[in-house]
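Quick log. Single chain, no ligands specified.
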Amino acid sequence: MYSHLDMTEKEAALRLQGNFAADIQMFDEIEKEAMEMANYMFCGMIRCCAR
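-> predicted structure:
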């Protein structure tokens, strides 16, 4: 979770600096990590409900 927040902070700084190419690349990394976190949570809910 902390790495996600750190990446979000870096993305905001890149956007404010006008470095849009790096901003887009960072956004893609944030999105990938968010999807991995969502998948992890979903799998946990399925395991919990399958009992």
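The chain has two helices and no strands.
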